[in-house]
Amino acid sequence: MKKFKFFTVISCVFLIFLSACNSNEQSSIKIAEVTRSLFYAPQYVAIEKGFFGDEGLDVELTTTWGGDKTMTALLSDGADVALVGSETSIYVYAQDSRDYAINFAQLTQTDGTFLVSKEPQPDFKWEDLKGSTFLGQRKGGMPQMVGEFVLKNHNIDPHADLNLLQNVDFANIPGAFVSGDADYVQLFEPTASTFEKEGSGHIVASFGEESGHVPYTVFMTKQSFIDKNEEEVMKFTKAIYKAQQWVQEHSAEEIAKVIQPYFEDTELDMLAASIDRYKDQGSFATDPILDEEEWNNLKDIMGEAGELPAGDLSYDDLVNTKFAEDVIED
Fold this sequence. Notes:
alpha/beta; D-Maltodextrin-Binding Protein, domain 2; 2 domains; five-stranded mixed sheet; 16 helices; 10 strands; globular; disordered N terminus; signal; ABC transporter substrate-binding protein
């Protein structure tokens, strides 16, 4: 009897030991980001500051260079989570996809592009654009749709009042502006600030300030992944929220030092200046919640651009705020 009790105790201790070991196991999450951009600074902070690791997540980040490629990676299980414009979830849903993408954590809440002119314009007015050659972004993407939305709000018809160029790939737009005849271009940071420093262009306006809050870049995953991995999605959202709070509480210079490994070709002071510009206009979301007002603003922008698919594109169907709300409460 004593021997039996002894082995029972040993077995219990062994099981407790195994349980402790298992609790330290890391879950692997593959992230596909639509492009490499300091606009996504909180994501890189979450990686570099170990916030994902603190939650038991081992993340693998891949840049997929384009919304279509990013969604293909997500839908084909090449990625578990996609960081991309929330409009892509609407496009997928409209195609009657059975296992569509769910927006669960917002990263940026404004447009991230700036209007850059080739010549200095200290007294710039939006009407100055009329009759100019404008190098725009890819048709159907968030930068282009927000751009058109802002121009129309200033009584500019982008297709009638401008010589609008949309035949250049995203990655080649900066070079095409420098070498071409365009008077204006729509650029992200740090390219916009770099051009200004070099004298290649001059920032005259912000599309983010003009367009208001919108779910510009969001973490999304398939409903089937959520069903099978609720705990991992919760941990992922918690890590992002930690990073968002860290970005809010620290200076642009401190943030730049943390994320510099992702932008080795950009000088630290230029990174800091670009981050400061985004912080000033409130581009980084302060929490992961995508609210319904932002969603409706997105649909208005897509509708104005003629890109909103027909049918019921319900906020309740395509947005899940449960994880974000729970991590904030905790």
